């Protein structure tokens, strides 16, 4: 098969990515019933991590929502520290930002307490990727 003429390095790279994606999708089964189940050991480990108890569904949902909020809070905190390090903020803005982040941290702690969670409980285990939040 002849390669089309090059339109530049970006177009060539897009073609490479497109070809790789096409090859990857061609490996997927056409129908869900063609999917083979995971090996027994791996499936059992996933089942142990996934709790589907109807009695704890509210707490689990709150845990998930608070995890997302905590992730966003930490990202905002890092961005704020970066801006402070860059010198982009006035002293008043730094003070206001610091107070806001402290209040947000306190509210997160209060919400965790209300549902019997700790901030450590919000750090989801992503398996081989490690944990969602930094230690």
TrEMBL record:
UniProt keyword Transmembrane helix, yes or no: no
Q: Does the keyword Transport apply?
A: no
Sorted alphabetically, the Gene Ontology BP terms of this entry are: gas vesicle organization
Chief location? other
- Stretch list, region Disordered: 22-53
Q: Which keywords, in A-to-Z order, does the entry hold? A: Gas vesicle
**Record InterPro entries:** GvpK (IPR007805)
Query: What GO cellular component entries does it have?
Result: gas vesicle
The protein's location, in the record's own words, is: Gas vesicle
Q: Which family does it belong to?
A: Belongs to the gas vesicle GvpK family.
Q: Could you tell me what this protein is called?
A: Gas vesicle protein K
The record lists the organism as Streptomyces capitiformicae
């Amino acid at each position: 098969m002849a390669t089309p003429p090059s339109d530049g390095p970006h177009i060539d790279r897009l073609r490479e990515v497109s070809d790789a994606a096409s090859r990857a999708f061609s490996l997927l089964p056409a129908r869900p019933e063609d999917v083979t189940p995971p090996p027994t050991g791996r499936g059992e480990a996933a089942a142990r991590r996934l709790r589907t108890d109807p009695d704890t569904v509210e707490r689990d949902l709150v845990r998930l929502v608070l995890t997302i909020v905590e992730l966003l809070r930490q990202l905002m905190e890092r961005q704020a520290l970066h801006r402070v390090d860059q010198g982009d903020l006035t002293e008043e803005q730094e003070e206001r930002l610091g107070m806001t982040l402290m209040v947000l941290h306190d509210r997160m702690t209060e919400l965790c307490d209300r549902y019997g969670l700790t901030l450590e409980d919000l750090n989801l285990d992503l398996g081989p990727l490690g944990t969602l939040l930094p230690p």
